[in-house]
Amino acid sequence: MQPFDARYWYEMNPTILIPPIVLLLACGAYIFWPQQKLAAVREKTRLDYLRERKEVIYENLRDLNFEYKAGKYPEADYASQRDSLESEAATVLTEITSLGG
Fold first, then answer.
1. The pTM is what?
2. Distance between CA atoms of residues 74 and 66, nearest Å
3. What is the pLDDT of residue 64?
4. DSSP class per residue in the chain
5. Given this model, what pLDDT does residue 82 score?
6. Is the confidence at residue 98, as pLDDT, over 70?
C-alpha cells in the first residue's frame, strides 16, 4: 500500500491524526490570536537620543582603536578619524550636560 493512496488515509487510526491536528490548531490560535493590550510606546526625548549617540560614538572609537592596532589603518587616517569622533563626542557630551543629563 502506497502512503499517498486514499485508502491509506481512510484506514489510518484516528488517534494518530488527532494530536498533530490539535497541536497545529493550538499553535495557529496562539500565533494569530489578537493581543488584548499592547505595550505603551514611550516617546524618545532628545536626551535619550543623545545618550544612544554617545554610546555609538564610544563603540566606534573602540573599534577604530582595535583596527588601528591590528594594522588596518595608516597613522594619518587613524588620527583624522579619531579626531572626528572625539570632536563629535565632545559636542554630544556638551549638549547632554546642557540638557541636565
1. 0.60
2. 13
3. 97
4. --TTSHHHHHHS-HHHHHHHHHHHHHHHHHHHSPPSSPPPPPPPPHHHHHHHHHHHHHHHHHHHHHHHHTT-S-HHHHHHHHHHHHHHHHHHHHHHHHTT-
5. 96
6. yes
In whole angstroms, give the CA distance from residue 28 to residue 25: 5
Q: Given its phi and psi angles, is residue 57 left (phi above 0), alpha (psi -120 to 50 degrees) or beta?
A: alpha
All three cell numbers of 22, joined, read: 490539535
CA distance 53 to 96: 11
Cell numbers representing residue 60 in the block: 566606534
pLDDT digits (tens, 9 = 90+) for 3-53: 567 676 667 777 877 888 999 999 999 999 887 777 778 888 999 999 999
